[in-house]
Design goal:
By secondary structure, this protein is α/β, with parallel strands linked by helices. 42% of the residues lie in helices and 22% in strands. Strands 2-1-3-4-5 form a five-stranded parallel beta sheet, with helices on both faces. The chain has a four-stranded antiparallel beta sheet with strand order 6-7-8-9, covered by helices on one side. Helix 1 links the parallel strand 1 and strand 2. The radius of gyration is 18 Å and the shape is elongated. The two termini are 29 Å apart.
Length: 222
């Protein structure tokens, strides 16, 4: 699942992103309200973690704008403020939950998981994706090929998830890097090729096609 963090305290944002990535989520981070609104409007996120005190546009306005535009993505608001009035204002603009700083990371993860569980059945979309003999359950994070379950590492699953969610489409290396490693990754971009290679060894060489100069496409075996 893909999360967006909108938080101007960069150390906190990076810390949250690292922790949530370790939990198996794909995480993007921006540091001001205007960028947050743009990314949340344009991206297909499963949840937004939104600070209230942001430069450019505060979290209340970002949340209200998303809801006014018809976006129903779950929103967990963060704030250094405390008090019933602030909580009421946040929830009135359409936030789904509210967490006051400083907070326990364990509590934040529990809130994130609760919001994602709550969204799951309501969203109506099945978490199970099938491409030929390949079946990927994005909720249980399990992969089957024909009748056999295939064991994948967290990163292998995240790369495969990006491909299966856009099965039949070309997914660029840049897209995979951004969604699996996050936008700030400054290591070797060829890491994507390494994981594609390991997936091919585990799933067979024909499921993931290389589209020269464009990226990769997941398609059913002939």
């Amino acid at each position: 699942m893909r999360l967006l963090i909108v938080e101007d305290e960069k150390r906190l944002a990076v810390s949250l992103a690292k922790g949530l990535t370790a939990e198996g989520y794909a995480v993007d981070v921006v540091h001001d309200g205007i960028d947050g609104l743009h990314r949340a409007s344009e991206g297909s996120y499963d949840l937004v973690i939104l600070d209230i005190m942001l430069p450019g546009m505060n979290g209340y306005r970002v949340c209200a704008a998303l809801r006014a535009a018809g976006h129903d993505v779950p929103i967990l608001m963060l704030t250094a403020k405390d008090g019933e009035y602030d909580e009421a204002e946040g929830l009135d603009t359409g936030a789904d939950d509210y967490l006051t700083k400083p907070f326990s990371y364990v509590v934040l993860v529990a809130r994130v998981k609760a919001l994602l569980r709550r969204r799951g059945p309501a969203g109506g979309a099945s978490p199970v994706h099938e491409v030929g003999e390949l079946k990927v359950d994005t909720a249980a994070r399990r992969v089957f090929l024909a009748e056999d379950e295939i064991a994948l590492t967290t990163k292998e699953f995240s790369v495969l998830e990006q491909l299966v969610l856009r099965a039949g489409e070309v997914v660029s290396k840049a897209d995979i890097l951004e969604h699996v490693w996050d936008f700030a990754y400054d290591g070797d971009p060829n890491i994507v090729e390494v994981y594609i290679s390991t997936l091919r060894r585990k799933l067979g060489p024909t499921l993931i096609k290389t589209v020269r100069g464009a990226g990769y496409r997941l398609e059913a075996r002939p």
